[in-house]
Design a protein that fits this description.
alpha+beta; 10 strands
């Protein structure tokens, strides 16, 4: 889907998704707001996965002038409406950047992910995977945010495959939840979907439920 262009004055209150509006992505020096729908889609999934109460867009679309004013080149992904810098919140606490980056990895985001510093993370929709650590000047963290963050002193627990209810074990309850989701009786969260998708095909079906049940027998 193509980049969408909005007017802050006319469209600022327009909802882009359940948790995001046009005005949150505006450049402070322009009425024009450019936004990539793919960016909104991943931010909405991230919101669900982390169980956020809010996600604050600290920087979305930037004009070339504003991008240069904040230290950019004037040609980056922000200027195309394809990037956002975010802070994620659960209640009164900000989610650390290590957890956000690992969550994006779990969501299968093979585009831009940058740890800016502390709690702040950059997300963009560039074609190729580019995972970087701005805080430490590292242009490539490798292919695993969990391993990289561990080297920086941050231990993020990787979800247990098959643990749909998130209680730390895989049992018949998890298999039942997966089966109920497969037949449309319940809707799983993003985190539950990833845990239940045992074959990694992006869907939860009876095959996944059977694999989870088999796993409980062999454990």
């Amino acid at each position: 889907m193509a980049i969408q262009t909005y007017s802050l004055k006319k469209d600022g209150a327009t909802k882009l998704s359940p948790h995001f509006r046009v005005r949150e992505f505006a450049s402070p020096d322009s009425d024009t707001v450019k936004i990539d729908p793919k960016l909104i889609a991943i931010l909405e999934r991230l919101y669900d996965y982390l169980g956020c109460t809010k996600v604050i867009i600290t920087s979305g679309y930037r004009t070339a002038a504003h991008d240069r004013a904040v230290g950019g080149s004037g040609r980056g992904y922000h200027t195309e409406g394809r990037a956002a810098d975010v802070n994620c919140w659960r209640g009164d606490s900000r989610v650390h950047g290590s957890e956000i980056c690992c969550a994006l990895q779990e969501l299968g985001w093979q585009h831009g992910i940058g740890w800016i510093a502390g709690h702040a993370v950059h997300v963009d929709t560039r074609a190729a995977r580019y995972w970087f650590d701005e805080q430490n000047g590292n242009r490539s963290i490798g292919t695993d945010w969990y391993a990289y963050m561990a080297t920086k002193g941050y231990s993020v627990e990787k979800p247990l495959a098959g643990d749909v209810d998130g209680n730390g074990t895989v049992d018949s309850t998890d298999a039942r939840l997966a089966l109920q989701a497969a037949v449309g009786k319940i809707k799983l969260t993003e985190k539950q979907m990833i845990a239940a998708d045992m074959d990694g095909d992006g869907t939860v079906d009876s095959t996944d439920a059977r694999v989870i049940l088999q796993k409980t027998i062999t454990m």
